[in-house]
């Protein structure tokens, strides 16, 4: 069967599965219970996205330039040390990291954003370093032989060849970020975790699912969006998917 036929069959199976799940939830009375929280879902989803957007943007703003610096010859000697320091931040359990951030920054959004930033930074940094290090040396030598400056080599040769791997790191980091934001509720930062944890405390499955389902959908949507950017905006010559 052709790939297009398989894709169409998969989409039909997905839609049928969603319809069947909705019918089952409706029959159990869970769907009406979820929908009665739609006002809270919209409000908390905005908080959720703001926390993820700020911390994710910070991680990209720091991780990509830092990764570029660590692949330059003058900083190569400290690349391992810096990577280990960043890796140390991600080896700490997320709840412990949030608690440590709260002890310094207090409660609310600032410690949550900081903890999410630390958690998100490593995939962005590692993929930036890996992507730039994977650029074939003959390409860089040829650019150097043509008289390009280091800045021109970075912009015209290294980054275009590494962008697919860098985007893969951003894709992974943002999906992890979205899925971890619910923990921010524990320190008063809001987000969809408010419905999840309150639903657990009150033993209300409808409230729990009203927070859990949008969280999962947001993570899938962000992963899909970055995947599409990877597919359509990375040129064919350096895009293994095309």
From TrEMBL:
InterPro entries per UniProt: ABC_transp_perm/SBD (IPR051204), MetI-like (IPR000515), MetI-like_sf (IPR035906)
Membrane-spanning ranges: 12-29, 49-70, 82-107, 113-140, 161-187, 207-226
Domain ABC transmembrane type-1: 45-226
Subcellular localization: Cell membrane
Annotated membrane topology: Multi-pass membrane protein
Superkingdom classification of source: Bacteria
Pfam families noted in UniProt: BPD_transp_1
Annotated Gene Ontology cellular component terms: plasma membrane
Broad class of where this protein is predominantly found: membrane
Entry keyword set: Membrane, Transmembrane, Transmembrane helix, Transport
BP GO terms, sorted: glycine betaine transport; transmembrane transport
PROSITE patterns for the chain: ABC_TM1
Family: Belongs to the binding-protein-dependent transport system permease family.
Name used for this protein in its record: ABC transporter permease
UniProt organism field: Prosthecodimorpha staleyi
């Amino acid at each position: 069967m052709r790939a297009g036929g398989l894709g169409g069959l998969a989409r039909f199976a997905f839609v049928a599965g969603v319809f069947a799940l909705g019918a089952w939830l409706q029959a159990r009375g869970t769907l009406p219970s979820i929908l009665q929280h739609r006002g809270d879902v919209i409000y908390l989803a905005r908080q959720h996205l703001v926390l993820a957007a700020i911390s994710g943007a910070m991680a990209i703003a720091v991780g990509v330039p830092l990764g570029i610096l660590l692949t330059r010859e003058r900083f190569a000697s400290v690349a391992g040390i810096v990577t280990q320091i960043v890796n140390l931040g991600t080896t700490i359990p997320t709840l412990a990291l949030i608690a440590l951030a709260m002890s310094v920054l207090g409660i609310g959004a600032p410690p949550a954003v900081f903890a999410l930033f630390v958690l998100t930074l490593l995939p962005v940094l590692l993929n930036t370093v890996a992507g730039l290090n994977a650029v074939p040396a003959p390409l860089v030598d040829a650019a150097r032989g043509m008289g390009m400056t280091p800045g021109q080599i970075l912009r015209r040769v290294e980054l275009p060849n590494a962008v697919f791997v860098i985007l893969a790191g951003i894709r992974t980091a943002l999906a992890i970020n979205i899925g971890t934001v619910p923990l921010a509720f524990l320190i008063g930062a809001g987000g969809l975790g408010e419905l999840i944890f309150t639903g657990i405390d009150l033993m209300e499955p409808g409230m729990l699912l009203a927070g859990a389902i949008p969280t999962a959908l947001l993570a899938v949507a962000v992963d899909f969006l970055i995947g599409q950017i990877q597919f359509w905006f990375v040129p064919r010559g350096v895009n293994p998917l095309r």
